[in-house]
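Predict both folds.
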Amino acid sequence: MTNSTGSPTPPDAPPEEAPELVEGAEADARAHDLSPWAPFAIADYRLFWLSSLCAMFTNQLIMLVPYIWLFETTHSAAKLGLVGGVQLVVQIPGLLWGGTLADTMDRKKLMAWTQAQTAAIMGVLALLAVTGNLVPWHIYAATALLSVTSVIGQPARAAITARVVPRTHLMHAITANQLTQQVGSIIAPLAFAWVVARWGLNPAWVMSALTSIPAAFLPLMIKAEGRATNVNTSGSMPRRVIEGFQYVRSHGILPGLFLLDIGMTVPTFYRQLLPALASGLFAAGPAAVGVLTSVNSVGAVIGAFVVLFTTRFRAKGMLVVYATFAFCVSVFFFGTVPSLFLGGVAIFGMGAFDAISMVTRQAMMQLTTPDQMLGRTLSLGTLVATTANNAGTLFVGFVAGGVFGLPGLGEAHTMQLGAIIALGCTVVVSLTVKGLRTYRYP
C-alpha cells in the first residue's frame, strides 16, 4: 500500500512465516536479492505470461499486416496516418471505461473477453483478404473496433500483475511483462517477413487471426483472485472515472511521467508509419519493414533487461528522464543516416531507450498506486500513451506526406524535427516536475 505522494507505507505486521506477503519497505529491499526469473516460479504468473505472449504476438501482427496492406494499396503516407485519427477518436472513451471496469470486474474475464473479440475481428479481415473482398474502409472500421477491445483489456492485463505475484517480485514481473511484449515484437515481424516473402500477404492475415485464439482462454486458467480489493462500487461509472482523474492529478509523480510520455511520443511516433518511413528513408519494401521492426524489438528486449540491473539505482524518476533523452537522440540519428544498416542501428537504440523509459514508468505507477485505484490509474497511463501514439501517427504522417494540399517535409526532416521537439519537452518536464527528480525506490 502507498500514500498519495507515491511513498511506500510500512506494513503493520507482515507474517514472518509467509515472506511472499511482505509489503512496503521490507519488500522493496528484498527485491534486490531476487533472480531476474523469480516471477516464473509462480504458476499463475506463467499462465499470465503465456497469455501475454500470445496477445502481444497478435498485436504486433495487427500493427503490421493491416497497415502494410493499406500502404501497398493506397501508396499514401497521409492515408496511413489517418489510422491514428480513427484510433484517437475511439480509444479515449474505451480506455476510461476499461480502467473503471478493471477496478470493478473480474480482470481475468475482462482479458479473456476482449481477446475473444480481437480473434473474431481478425478472422473476418482474414476472410475478406483471402476472398479478395478487402477494401480500405474495412481497415479503418476494423481499426476502430480493435482499438476499443484492446484498450478495454489493457488496464486489466496491467493491473492483474500485482495479483499474480507478491510485491517483492513486482519490479521483476513488470520487466518480464515488457520483455514478453518485445519477444513477441521480435518473433512476429520476422515471422511476418518470412511468410510475406514466401507466400504473400494473404497468409499473414490468416496467421494474425490464429495467433489471437490462445490469449482468449489462458487468463481463465489463472487461480489468483481477479477482482480488486477495497473497491468502492457506489456511484455511477462517470463518478468512478472522475475519482481516477482526481487521484492522478494529486499524485506527486504521475503527471510528470505522463507529460514525458506525451512529449517524446507525439513528435516522433514511427511504428505504424514504418512502411512509409522505410520507403522514404531507405527505398525499402515490406520485408525491410519486418526486419526493422524486429531490430527495434531486439533493442527493446535488451533495454527492458537492463532495467533489472538498475534496481540499486534509486533515482528512478531521473532514470526515465535520461532514457527519454537518449531516445530522442536516437530518433534524430534515424532521420539522418543514409543506409538501411545504420537505420537499423538507430532504431535498435530507439527501442532500447524507449523500453527503459517505459518499464520504469510502469513500475513507478504500480509501486505508488493502491490496488483499488490501479485499474483507473493504469488506464489513464494507457490513455496518455495511446493518445500520444495516435496523435503522433497523425503528426508524423501529415508532416512527412503533406495534408490539405500542403507539401510534406519528407520522412528524414520529419524525424529530425520531431527529435528536436521531443528533446525540448524532456528538458522542460524534468526541470518543472519536482517529483521526477526526488522520487527514490526503494
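Second protein follows, with its predicted C-alpha cells after the sequence.
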Amino acid sequence: MPQLKKELSRFDLTMIAIGSMIGSGIFLTPSIIARAIPLPSLIIFVWLIGGMQALSGALTFAELGSMMPGAGGVYVYLSEGYGKLAGFLYGWAYFLVVNTGGIAALSVAFATYLGYFFHFNIIGIKIVAVTGIFVLTLINVFGVKIGGIFSDLFTLLKLVGIFGVILIGFLLGSSHITNYSISIFNKGTEWSGIAIAMVGVLWSYGGWQHATYTAGEAKNARRDVPVAMIIAASLVTAIYVIINIAYMYLLPVNSIAASSSLAADAVQTVIGTTGGGLIALAIFISTFGTAGIYTLTAPRIYFAMASNGIFFKQVSKIHPRYNTPYYAIIFQSTWAVILVLFWGTFENLISYVVFTDWIFFALTAATIFIFRKKLPDAKREYKTLGYPYTPLFFIAVAVWFVLNTLIEKPEQAIAGIIMLGLGLPVYFYWKRKIS
C-alpha cells in the first residue's frame, strides 16, 4: 500500500510555517488596526502581543509535535486529548470555514492584485482565482517535494518584497511616530479597540501550526517540526513589528488608517507610482504562495480523518505514483472553488474564521496538560520552555480573544458556532456507519 513520503527538510518545514503566516494580512490589516487604535504605541503593542501569542503557541505545539509526529497535526492532538469528536469538529470546521475559506479569499486576493496590471472585472477576477486554485491543486497532487519547493520559492520571494518596504521606509522615509505613550490602562474604549484590532493581528500571525500538518512527511519530524515553528514565530514577529514601524516612517497613522492599499501608498510617497506596481506584484506573489501552502498542508487533516473512518473514505487514498493524498487535495480545492464563485471575498468571513480557529487553538494548547498527566513517559525530544506559564499565557489570550469577538462581532461568532454545530449530526452519522 502506498505511503506518504518523508521528504520535507527542516528548511522546508520552516518555509511552510513562515509562508503560511506571511500572506495578505500584513499588507491589508495594518489599516484596520490603525482605525481601531490610532496610536503608534498601541499599534506596536498589539503586534508585539500577537507575536508573543504566536511564539507561546509555537513553543506549546512544538512539544505536541515532538510527541506525536504523525500526519494531521492539531487534529491528532485534539483526537488523542479529548476523543474523536473534538478532532472531527476541528477537521470539519477547517474544511468548511477556516482553510477552504482562506484559500478562496487568498485566491480572490491574488487575482485582484494581478488585476492591478490587467484590469480584470469581477468575472475576470473569479476566473483567475479559480484557475489559480486549479494550478495549485496540480502542483500539490504531483508531489509533496514539488509543493515544498514551491513554498520555499514563494516564501523567499515574499520576504524580499517585505524587506524592500522596510528598507525604503527606514532609508527614505521620515518618522511620523509622534506619540509614544501607552494609556490603555485608563481608557476602556481603547481596550475595545484592541479587541477589534486583534482580529487582524491574529489573522496575520496565523499559520505557524501548518508545519505540524505535514509532520508525517518530514525527514525528522520529532526534531524539525518544533524548531521550524519556533524559528517561524520568532522571525515573523520581528518582521511584523519592523514593517509596521516602516509604514509609520512613510505615512502618519491617520493616512495609514485611511489607506485601502497601504503598502503601495506608503512606498509611492517616496518612489512614485512604480513603487505601487512593485508592491502590487509583491502582494500577488505573497497571496499566491500562501494559497499554495494552504493547499499543500491542510489535506493531511482530512486524510487523517478519513483514515480513522470519520470522513469520506476516498479522501484516505494516496496516489499510486505521486504518493500524495490526492483525493483530499482535490476535495478541498473543489469546495474552495465553490466559495470563490458564491462568496467572492474573505471580508465577510475573516472574523468568524479567526473566531472558530482560536477556539480550537485554546483547546489544543490545553491538551499539553492532559498529555503531561496521561502520558508522562511518552518520548519528547522537546519540552515546552516556561511550562506551565507559556501554555497558560497562550490559552488566556485565546479565551479573551474568543469572548471579545463574541461581544464585538456577534454575527460572525454565532455563524461560526452554527457551522460547528452542523458537524455534530454528520459525525454521529459517520460513527454509526463504521460501528
